[in-house]
Amino acid sequence: MGSSAAYFLKKKAGKSLDVVVIEKDCTYRKASTALSSGCIRQQFTIPQNIMMSRFTVEFLRLFKKDIDPDIDPNLTCNGVLTLTNEEGAENMKKCAGLQKELGVNVELLTADALKSKFPWIRTDAVALAAFGCVNEGWFDPWALMMGLRRKAQSLGARYVEGEVTDFIFKSTGGEYDAIDEVVFRTADSKQHGIKFNQCILAAGAYSGDIARKAAIGTKSGLLSAPLSIEPRKRYVYVIKSQGDNIPPLTAPLVIDTSKAYFRRDGTAGNFICGRSPPKDNEPSTDNLDVDMDFFETNIWPQLAYRIPAFESLKVVGSWAGFYEFNKFDCNGVLGKHPAYDNFYIMAGYSGHGIQKIPAVGRGIAELIVDGGFKTIDLSLLGFDRVVENKPLVELALV
Ligand SMILES: Cc1cc2nc3c(=O)[nH]c(=O)nc-3n(C[C@H](O)[C@H](O)[C@H](O)COP(=O)(O)OP(=O)(O)OC[C@H]3O[C@@H](n4cnc5c(N)ncnc54)[C@H](O)[C@@H]3O)c2cc1C
């Protein structure tokens, strides 16, 4: 998100704007982006969520031309297929109706239609399926991030490796002090400060912590509402199967009735898969260790039931990453904080953020350089909804 903002700001404002990205780990080893599954879909119900994903597809198609000829984001539009049982069927129909009105190419399939289109799926207990077959699938998140970073740098954005630890305020004489300077620590334990004209908070899963340093959620009035973004650990397993009737190279990303998902990963027969843990049993976020028992008990049985070829799978790799989970409403926050003239937030997409990165980068650049949204009106993502306690409900979250 930070590199997307840096790129679009430099693209828009050129040399007239000095852009500095402060990044605590330039290897991005633990960044959500580097650890993402890279799924992109249009099957949302908030028009802005659809428009943002749509822009990302356009952006990725032009990536080699506009961003970096040496980096291929590997956009694979095999579609996204979501299965539901009786309980979820009404909601699926409602979402598909809304999506069609918004121009999304989504097809509803009965169990029989599903079986004839995708014969490798066992359709037991599937009441309905939604197949998004245009501009849906997955891409390589690492390529997106590296391309944006390199392009931003080539346009003059500077990257500093350091951990943001604090902000320095100055009195305005009004109700709220202004934020004047960001404080960060480099690897040699030295403290540094940068005074800024505008600051964007885009620290992924740690954005809630950093917002508190900016007094957000710690005072009264407009500063009383917290930015409730926190890390939530999610596992990704790489699997391979020797079974018969394996989902082919053209198979879509599948989200099972159990919410376990899988998709092809490259052409060597690997798949990646995962599933969110139960709400009351979130794993510890002290580390990025992978729980293999979670796969054995919560994913494999579901996948093997749904895809008979996965009964004989083996796990060939795994990793864990942190969702930047917005406890308030699972949607992103984008825009200026209402208590400040110079402090913007760009975080909290809670597991559907990778597909928003180009659009939110462009949006924040429009806010800062043009003074308002010019392409997609993203005002409804502003922090005002948090202050007013009006959650933004996206019906089509996985
Ligand atoms: C396992 C997994 C699967 C996912 N799958 C999907 C998917 O299929 N589709 C989808 O749309 N989204 C998915 N997501 C979500 C998506 O990856 C995120 O929404 C997106 O990457 C968030 O980008 P970001 O830039 O906000 O966060 P990050 O990529 O985490 O970047 C934040 C950066 O801030 C830096 N930082 C943090 N604190 C500080 C500090 N104090 N000082 C300086 N720098 C700091 C970090 O080092 C990091 O590089 C997934 C996420 C995970 C973990």
Automatic annotation (TrEMBL):
Residues spanning the signal sequence: none
CC annotations in GO: mitochondrion
GO BP, sorted A to Z: mitochondrial respiratory chain complex I assembly
One Pfam family of this chain: DAO
Domain FAD dependent oxidoreductase span(s) in chain numbering: 1-367
Claim: Oxidoreductase is one of the keywords in the record: yes
Gene Ontology MF terms in the entry: oxidoreductase activity
Alphabetic keyword roster: Oxidoreductase
Function: Required for the assembly of the mitochondrial membrane respiratory chain NADH dehydrogenase (Complex I). Involved in mid-late stages of complex I assembly.
PANTHER family, A to Z: FAD-DEPENDENT OXIDOREDUCTASE DOMAIN-CONTAINING PROTEIN 1, SARCOSINE DEHYDROGENASE-RELATED
Name of this protein: FAD-dependent oxidoreductase domain-containing protein 1
Taxonomic source organism: Hermetia illucens
